[in-house]
Amino acid sequence: xxxxxSRQKFVYxxxxxxxxxxxxxxxxxxxxxFEGIPRRIIYDQDRVFVKxxxxxxxxxxxxxxxxxxxxxxxxxxxRKADPESKGKVENVVKYVKHNYLKGRVFQxxxxxxxxxxxxxxxxxxxxxxxxxxxxxKQEWEKEKQYLLTYSGKPxxxxxxxxxxxxxxxxxxxxxSNYYSLPLGTYQDRGANVLLEEKEMKRFFYTIDxxxxxxxxxxxxxGRIIKxxxxxREKSKTLQKTYELVFESLRYxxxxxxxxxxxxxxxxxxxxxxxxxxxxxxxSSSQEIINLALLYCYENQxxxxxxxxxxxxxxxxxxxxxxxxxxxxxxxxxxxxxQNADMQPQKRDINEYESIMN
Length: 357
What we know:
The chain is α+β, with helices and mostly antiparallel strands.
């Protein structure tokens, strides 16, 4: 973790992939080290923090949500695989790897952690920063008076993940089943992964804590459990997807403004929203698409999944109107037929002559 203004850095090392519990613990250590809590923290979309995301609307894991509710800082998430938006901390990771870890003989994790804090005190935070041209530790003395108060006490959780070898076909044998991994995971006979079981799923990580694959828990044996996305090529560009969507919406005057509004509201999820819109309008009529888009535009519904819900609503409404219309036509035709078959009552002329007489 690095403070944005002073560039004061904190490092926490462990030998196993981070979980929500250990990530929360690392936060506590950082707050203790910084002597306060930042008002905002920017994150990568790591699964220890994010359970799911809906085109920019993020659903936190239960453990991290409880942690954020207990501490007064604002959470901001970067888009996946977007190093530019988190460049400051990415530079810190590189700095620690090349200036502290590289060439160091590992003895044990506790000693490594103790020595990294000593290194920060004499080097990492004590030398002039290459960008700001100021000493982080001195700037932190000024910055920390603006941090929020931290009065907690870090409590280290217990976690230990097992190591499994990767087979030549990029699978892992676990409890009589073979679980697929992305192509290229197997490099040589020393290729290993870490495995975690949680929430009825199995998570596979590289040794350096990168998530490789997620599989649902299988109670069968002797199966090959594959994820087809591991070998999938994703070649469509944002421009091509935009052109496809706009071609379908070109008859609607507000289409361009609506797409621009989505891009402005969720710039990092614009491509994902476009794909969802394109998928849902393929089987809809132009009339229904027009109604849905105008409704979403006027009500500032800037999420493609919600756009799809509105589209579905108008389709159901149209289907219901068609049913009622057909019933009215059939009922009208039936009444006309009944009227055509009706015959007026006739009386004998002698009855009228008898009345007149």
